[in-house]
Amino acid sequence: MKTAQEMKSGNVALIDGQPWLIQKTDYTKSGRNSAIVKMKLKNLLSGSSTETVYKFDDKLEPVILDRIEVTYSYSSDNLYVFMDEEFNQYELNAEDLEAVLPFIVDGMTDICTSVFFEGKVISVDLPTTIVREIAYTEDSARGDTSGKVMKPAKMSNGTELKVADFCEIGDWIEIDTRTGEYRSRAKAPA
């Protein structure tokens, strides 16, 4: 058991029998009141988020989740299948992959990480950056070169995001999977 003050962002705590990812902590000590820790939490099973306040010495049970490297294999209907290097398959529903679903495309070779809780796969994390090809974007606007000019683009799986104005159809771009934002132009994967 750890006190609320000892828990940090990125830790996972078992609350009411469910794993909650601590996304943000804010320790506050004011005047005569006892110190408190405000936490922003995300339920790893349901995906719901909440904010709560603990006394600094409230006890929380930390959870260490098992992680295994996997690659995307295929999808069928609402089911996505990932495979580890020993050819074990892990199936997840689209709802479990809500955060990473916009970046999953057929034939992707990115090494992902499957996350387990009590022996069951609950989510998949993508690498921090991935490289994807632009399937469609408008031509650049002439003369509009002041500042950081962005324009909409569509990836092969239909995901839309803003890219730099100089990007064209067929260009490969680097995307930050944490924010879903364009980072830079990239070379095509070998």
Strand content: over 45%
User: How are the strands ordered across the major sheet?
Assistant: 1-6-2-3-4-5
- Secondary-structure element order, N to C: EEEEEEEEEEEEEEEE
Number of domains: 3
Round the mean pLDDT to the nearest integer and report it. 89
Residue share in helix:
under 10%
Number of helical segments with 4 or more residues: 0
Count of β-strands:
16
Q: Quote the CATH topology of the largest domain.
A: SH3 type barrels
Q: Supply the CATH architecture of the largest domain.
A: Roll
Poorly predicted ranges: none
Q: Quick one: CATH class of the largest domain?
A: Mainly Beta
Q: What would the principal axes of the Cα set say about the shape?
A: flat
* Computed CA radius of gyration, to the nearest angstrom: 21 Å
Distance between the termini: 47 Å
Q: How many strands, what sense, and barrel or not for the largest sheet? A: 6 strands, antiparallel
Characterise this structure.
The chain is mostly beta strands and 190 residues long. It folds into 3 domains: 1-61, Roll (SH3 type barrels); 64-123, Nucleic acid-binding proteins (OB fold (Dihydrolipoamide Acetyltransferase, E2P), Beta Barrel); 127-183, Beta Barrel (OB fold (Dihydrolipoamide Acetyltransferase, E2P)), CATH 2.40.50.140. The protein is built from no helices and 16 strands. The strands form 3 sheets. A 6-stranded antiparallel sheet has the order 1-6-2-3-4-5, with no helix packed on it. It has a 5-stranded antiparallel sheet with strand order 9-8-7-10-11, with no helix packed on it. Strands 14-13-12-15-16 form a 5-stranded antiparallel sheet, with no helix packed on it. A hairpin with a 4-residue loop joins strand 13 (150-155) and strand 14 (160-164). It is flat, with a radius of gyration of 21 Å. The termini are far apart.
